Amino acid sequence: MSLIGETQFLERLQYFNGQRLFASDLDASEGFHREMRWLHNQSLHQPGVGAGYAVSGDKGAREVSVQPGYAIDAEGREIVLTQARTLTVPPVSGEENGKPAYYDLTVSYPNERDLEESETREGICLPRGVVRLKEEPVFCWVRLTPCPDLQPVDPVLKQDLEDARRLRLARAEVLDCRLNRALSTAQRLDARPHNIPYVACGSSGGEGWQADLQQASVLRLLQEVDTTAAGFRARPSYLAHAAGERILEVGETTILLEGFTHVTDIRADGFTLHYLVPMALLRAFLGDTSGDDIPDESLKILLEVVRENWTVEWVGVEA
User: Which of 70, 248, 276, 295 is most exposed, with minimal Cβ within 10 Å?
Assistant: First the structure.
């Protein structure tokens, strides 16, 4: 859930000498800075483990150790563990067929009602009240369906994991109340962006090809390529080419359709591929060896052949 849109307006508290302050004023000031920090985290960082939260557990262990760490959930809330914790391995014998049971060790931000009171004070002519609440991460073993699916059994917990309100720290394989093998941390999310470039690839069908004849010496074939599915956040560098048979049979005529490619209109969600074909290679097919104009019928047939035989294959690299 995004904080933008949930917050109707922002109020900055302002104080003056002699002002009478209420608990609600100070709570509002604390809440303002907390929600602005959450909004910063949610807008500029991805959910996951930022530092620490090392989890260890060897084969045969009945307990696992979680080291102090810092993580951010999808709502921008900081999940901070200040002291190491020891957690008991789920006390199950395994699946009904005798094979190991799988669990994900997860951590989440505590609900307001679950916060532990760490300090209370007497009020002036008023009852004792809470002045400090201790924020402790909530750890949970999430049961998974048998291998190879390995999906959370509980639909609510599954949704929390998909929405990154609950974060995976490790995956355990449990047999006879013990770890059947050492914990795996391959499933955890990283809040820090990776240093290595993000690379994605794909292809688009041939139905998008269009023809443009701006110069008599060159036939320009174009296709708009959509790369939205790759999820690039910034404009990447694209490498692209037209894939397909270059020697094409059109009726009783054999043509060689060879040329040069370049990419324009580069965006995070797509680009335009240009395929330039020298006109000299097409004279026999076009049926006009002297004139500069391409017959409309010839251009139509050429496009049909290209659309049936060619696709665009691309690779994008986002630094």
Answer: 295
